Amino acid sequence: xxxxxxxxxxxxxxxxxxxxxxxxxxxxxxxxxxxxxxxxxxxxxxxxxxxxxxxxxxxxxxxxxxxxxxxxxxxxxxxxxxxxxxxxxxxxxxxxxxxxxxxxxxxxxxxxxxxxxxxxxxxxxxxxxxxxxxxxxxxxxxxxxxxxxxxxxxxxxxxxxxxxxxxxxxxxxxxxxxxxxxxxxxxxxxxxxxxxxxxxxxxxxxxxxxxxxxxxxxxxxxxxxxxxxxxxxxxxxxxxxxxx
Length: 244
Ligand SMILES: [Zn+2]
Hints:
The structure is a single chain. By secondary structure, this protein is an alpha/beta fold. It has one domain (about 60-240): TIM Barrel (Alpha-Beta Barrel). Helices cover about 45% and strands about 10% of the residues. Helix 2 (about 75-85) links the parallel strand 1 (about 60-65) and strand 2 (about 90-95). The radius of gyration is 18 Å and the shape is globular. The chain starts with 8 loop residues before the first helix and ends in a 5-residue tail after the last strand. Residues about 5-45 have low confidence and may be disordered. Bound molecules: zinc ion. Zinc ion binds near residues 68 and 122. Zinc ion (ZN) binds near residues 67, 68, 118, 122 and 158.
């Protein structure tokens, strides 16, 4: 899948410049992580002390995404864990949930994570009239705009449901459609160990990992997340948000 990390030529140039810098840093990070004398499970990641720019994007990275929130019970716990491991993520939020907990969307945004559009009520976009499609997307946009002060440019279609009409309508509204490449299937509640193993077995650099902070009981997701983050960091992965 084509991961849209940039939206404008201006940003592309900026990203390209940062990539050059981070490529140099990335070589050091990967080399250190592969040192056989190290213990990958316990060795801390090398500090990016030589970084000549303020924010260097990691060259070996994953994109963590959390869907269906915000949720009063689970979103704060997930934010605390992400902060502990200094990981940034992208949250695809349901507009109706944002209107219930705008303070959580604000907290996500203020912590440096990305807040994006997952429709107003988690509707399957393949089965809507043009008017209903527009309402699903625009209402969620407005709720998020009211909560965080900026409007999402990325849209994750519920159920990953896309067809040519969905693509055309999303494009007409200026939205980039973003799905995922690694599905933790945490929503099936398969057990904490199964969630951890599913992510770690399938992850590659550039993977977009799907998890959920809302939409049901996410106790297993919360329990799995520290192990996932610890393991990814030990393998030399950094974390990027989608640049929507
Ligand atoms: Zn969803």
